Amino acid sequence: MKKTLTIAGSDSSGGAGIQADLKTFQEFGTFGFCAITSVVTMDPDNNWSHHVTSMEPALVEQQLKTIFSGKPIDGLKTGMLGAIETIEIAARYIKKHQVKHVVIDPVMACKGSDELLQPENVETMKKLLLPLATIATPNLLEAKFLANVPTISSLDDMKQAAEKILELGPKTVVIKGGKALGTDKAIDVFYDGKEFTVLSENKIQTHNNHGAGCTFAAAITAGLTKGLSTEKAARQAKSFVTAAIKNGVDIYPYVGHIWHGAYNHAEKRIIDNN
Asked: Per the CB 3.0–4.6 Å rule, which of 5, 32, 143, 237 could disulfide with 219?
């Protein structure tokens, strides 16, 4: 069984972060590990505002030391990392253990929040993590800051940003446009330095999209460990997330969750205990 690791924040609502990653790893038949970098909570008494409580970097390193003390990790993804020291620790372990498949999801803010990481954190990610990436998976906001462009509002903008991000060191880039562009399609752009591939699905009119970005990156991670090419892993991840959004569930009034079991019809399985 392939072993997959997420280095990311914990989403107490169960939809995104390491919760989304581990559910996705399981759906793809890989054995999931996690190193928790922070705990994200939402406050129902204050307009469902987000609170992020970071773990001490030393504790993050203790988790990674535990994880890497066993058999080799086949693939990993990073999500919300927070402190610069945590970013440095993640990069050090990736290099030390020569992880073959590395997906860098450069999380810079919680969904529904405009609170970005400090600029020095973004610069540290660009310097230390992107050069290690098999693929980087920024959304439009993250791609804007990584590519250092004023705005991304069209397919051409996405392609130009992908070119700039690839220059930072990742082998491939996929920019998650999703529902943000003003079209009837949910569009992502994959770029390998040679050609662009547009990943497109019909836009789904729903608010149940919490965790889509994390899940997309986790699905790519699992796909890579199963032997898929980076492009095929991205295509499969797109299908996985589309099914998850289409079959999303209402859990909280503020945010709707995707359903990670939809692609494999997990909710329809019957376990025979006899």
From this structure: 237
